[in-house]
Structures are given as C-alpha cells and as structure tokens.
C-alpha cells in the first residue's frame, strides 16, 4: 500500500527566513504525482506545487520549491523568504492510478508551520 | 468562478442520528471526490464520482455511509446511523479531469456525541 510520511508535526520559521518541510513516501509504482497542499487556518486547502515522477527537474513556484529524490522516495518543500501568510498546515500528497480509473490522493498527516514575525 | 462549496460547515449530532453532507463542485467538473480526516490521522480517500457514476468507492468505511450524485452535479454523503468514530472533517474536491488538479472545499466538521 502507498503511504506518505511527514515526520515533522510542527515547524516554525522566522519571517524572511527559509524553511524545509520533509515528506517521504512508499510506493512500488513508477508513474505517479506528488503534491504539496496548504491549508491556512479556517480556510480551504489549496495546491502549492506539484511534481510528476517522470520529470527529473525539481518543480518551482515563486518562493516554493521542491527537492524530489525519486530513488530515496523523498519530496521536501522549501519555502524561501517566509511570509506571515505562509502560516498554515501543509500536507504532502501522492497520486497514482489505483487501477479503478480513479486517481485518488494519499495524504501525510500534515506539518503545522508557524511564522514568527 | 465559484469554488467548491460544502454545507453545512459544522454539524453536531448524537450517536444514532442521521446526517447528510452536501458538496457543490466547480461548474463543469465531472470528477468529484470525498475525503475524510479523523482527528490526528491522515486525510483519507472515501470515493470518487465521474459525473453521476461511482468510479471508485474503495475508501468508504462501511455501509452506514451512502454517497449520491444525482444528475452529475452536487453530491450528498449521508451517514446513517452515525457513530462516535465518524467524527472528523469531511472534504469534497472536484477536478475537470482525473489527471488535473483537485480543488478542495472548506470541509464539513462533523461531531458525533
């Protein structure tokens, strides 16, 4: 079974500094997708960044970038120049074809990020 | 464009009662997903609709849960009878195609006492 592990329940970062959130996953699939979702307090979960497993280049979206290590099954998120609005719960997720034609997401437990002014 | 909406935002019911959660996906999104996060646990997949058909319901915990999507628009998730372990946040998501991004609703927090 596919699993996603986020080993850091909580993290904090000083405003303007850089923080890295860890995520590892377990799969026997070769074709899959990885995501980082962000859920601010009392707000909807939104997609931060996605990575296709077949792409060697790490995805980047403005201040957000990933370090995708396929062999190690690691997918960490780096947030540069942290802002107060980055404070949220961050979920790492994995998506694959379950064989039923359904690309369900498998989530980690989440990492709560606090940003210190 | 309106996002995914869910109703109610919070529901408190007693054990043994029935509750119906509603999800309105983004207009034009054929794919609709239900997920659930029980306190302290991961967000877990429940089921996936393509239009009005259940594509994958492998995550549904038991037959006390019934999901419908009449007409391929909004979806309902009924829990009958509710048990204490059903408490959690129920998320709905929709996507234009299975390979496209899933957009999430704000969730419904269900508390069974």
Can you give keywords for this protein?
heterodimer, A: 117 residues, mainly beta, 6-stranded mixed sheet, 4-stranded antiparallel sheet, 12 strands, 0% helix, globular, B: 113 residues, 7-stranded mixed sheet, 11 strands
The best one-word shape of chain A is globular
Number of helices of chain B: 0
Strand content of chain A: over 45%
The count of DSSP E runs of length 2 or more, i.e. the number of strands of chain A, is 12
Task: Kindly describe this structure.
- By secondary structure, chain A is mainly beta.
- Chain A is 0% helix and 50% strand.
- Chain A has strands at 3-5, 10-14, 19-21, 24-26, 33-39, 46-52, 60-61, 64-69, 74-79, 88-95, 105-107, 111-116.
- In chain A, strands 2, 5, 6, 10, 11 and 12 form a 6-stranded mixed β-sheet that branches.
- In chain A, strand 5 and strand 6 (46-52) form a beta hairpin.
- Chain A is globular, with a radius of gyration of 14 Å.
- The model of chain A has no long low-confidence stretch (mean pLDDT 93).
- With 113 residues, chain B is mainly β.
- In chain B, strands 2, 4, 5, 6, 9, 10 and 11 form a 7-stranded mixed β-sheet that branches. Chain B has a 4-stranded antiparallel β-sheet with strand order 1-3-8-7, with no helix packed on it.
- Chain B is globular, with a radius of gyration of 13 Å.
- Classes of the chains: A mainly beta (117), B mainly beta (113).
- Chains A and B meet through strand 6 and strand 11 of A and strand 5 of B.
């Amino acid at each position: 079974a596919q699993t996603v592990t986020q080993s850091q329940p909580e993290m904090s970062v000083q405003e303007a500094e850089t923080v890295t959130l860890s995520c590892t996953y377990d799969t026997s699939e070769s074709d899959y997708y990885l995501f980082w979702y962000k859920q601010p307090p009392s707000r909807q979960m939104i997609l931060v960044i996605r990575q296709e497993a077949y792409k060697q280049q790490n995805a980047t979206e403005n201040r957000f970038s990933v370090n995708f290590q396929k062999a190690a099954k690691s997918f960490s998120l780096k947030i540069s120049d942290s802002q107060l609005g980055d404070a949220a719960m961050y979920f790492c997720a994995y998506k694959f074809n379950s064989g039923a034609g359904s690309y369900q997401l498998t989530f980690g437990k989440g990492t709560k990020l606090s940003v210190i002014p | 464009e309106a996002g995914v909406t869910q109703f109610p935002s919070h529901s408190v019911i007693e054990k043994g009662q029935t509750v119906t959660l509603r999800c309105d996906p983004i207009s034009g999104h054929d794919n609709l997903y239900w997920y659930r996060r029980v306190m302290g646990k991961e967000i877990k997949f429940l089921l996936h609709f393509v239009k009005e058909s259940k594509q994958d319901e492998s995550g549904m915990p038991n037959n006390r849960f019934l999901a419908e999507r009449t007409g391929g628009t909004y979806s309902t998730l009924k829990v009958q009878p509710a048990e204490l372990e059903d408490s959690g946040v129920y998320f709905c998501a929709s996507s234009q195609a299975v390979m496209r991004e899933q957009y999430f609703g704000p969730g419904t927090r269900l508390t069974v006492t």
